[in-house]
Predict the 3D structure of the following.
Amino acid sequence: MKVYTLHHPHELTQKDFPPLSIALGFFDGVHLGHQKVIQGALDYAKEHDVKSAVMTFDPHPSVVLSSKKSSVKYLSSLEQKAQKIEMLGVDYLLVVRFTSAFASLEPQEFVDQYLIGLNAVHITAGFDYSYGKFGRGKMETLPFHARGKFTSTTIEKQTDDHEKISSTRIRELLSNGNPEKAAQLLGSYYETEGLIVHGEKRGRKIGFPTANIETLNGLLIPAPGVYAVRMNVNNSWHDGVCNVGYKPTFNNPDQAELSVEVHLFEFNESIYGEKVQVQWVERIRSEQKFNGVEELIAQIEKDKNKAVEILKK
C-alpha cells in the first residue's frame, strides 16, 4: 500500500495517480461500519479494474474546529489505522492534514482539489459523511459537485443490536469497562500502544512485577479496573493481567495519577524503553481498596487465575 500525506494546498495532480475508487472517512478504529465503507470502494475497484484508495484525515477535525480546548481520545493511532487499512487490501492511503486552511475549503473546492484533482472515478462514504466548510457538503450533494467526473455510493447505517456501530459508541463501551462488546464492533480486540517506563516497583516487592506503561498517541485507556490482556513485546505476544487505576490501597486519591500496569505470566525480561501493544480482552473487576498488602496479594492471585482462564478461551 502506497501512503501519501497531503498538506493543503497540495501539489499532486491527476497524473500522479491511476483512476481511483476512494473511500472517504476519518475511520477511527476502522470498526465494522468503516470496513463496510472501505469494502465498497474495494468492490468497485475490482469490478471496474481500477485502484482502491482510502482518504482519511489527521488530526481529528474536532481538534481544529472546536473552540473548546478538548483532546480527542483515539481508538487507533495513524500507524494502527494504516495497518488495518492495508490488511483490508487497499492500494493507496491518502492522509490529509486537517488544518484551518483545509477546513475553510468550500465543498466544490474540496471536490475539485481532493477528489477530481486526485483522479477519483468513484467515491464511497457513509450516509452521514460531510465535506467542505461547515460540513455543508453531504452525500446528497456529491453528485452535483462531482461535475460528472465520478460516481458515488452511499453506505447506509450499519447497526448492531439495533444501534449504530460508531467510534463514539465504542469509546463509551471502553470508558464503561466493556472491551468485549467493543471488540465485537471493532471486529478485533481493542489495542493501545505504549512505552515501558519506570514505576514505583511496588509489584516486584509483593511478588507480582509489573510493566508500567505510558500510553502513546492519545489513545483511549479503558475504565479503571483489572483486565485480562495480551501484550506484544519485541514482536512476541504474552498473556497477562492489567490494572488500570489510581492504586487506592497505597495512594491518596487526591494526589494519585492514573496508571496502567501489566503483570505478564512467566516473563522476567527487562523491557524498559520498549514500545509495546496491549490487547484488551476482558474486564475482571473494578478497582478497589484493600485493607493492607496481604489482602491485595490474595486478590491479585485470584485475578491472575481468572485472567489465565479467560485467555485460554
The two ends are 34 Å apart (CA to CA). The chain is about 30% helix and 30% strand. Residues 238 and 266 are 9 Å apart (CA to CA).
